[in-house]
Structure prediction request, 77 residues.
Amino acid sequence: MAKKTKKEQPEQTVVIDGKEYKVSDLSSEAVELVNHVADLDRKISSSKFNLDQLNVGRGAFMNLLTGSLETPEAELS
Prediction:
């Protein structure tokens, strides 16, 4: 049976203001701040996605509301 060799992982880097940094060279505080920024970026993206859904849903309900207001009273009963 052949020996399994461990594949070397590429070193993690992060780009801040156009400059690339090795994560291993950052202080623990800087790594924590990078993680906070990344988490906030994910939350902002998720919030934008949710806002898009809410706006489309609101638009659909407004269309239903305006449509119902255009319907004569006799048809509603």
About this structure: The radius of gyration is 26 Å. The CA atoms of residues 19 and 75 lie 66 Å apart. The mean pLDDT is 91. The longest strand covers residues 13-16.
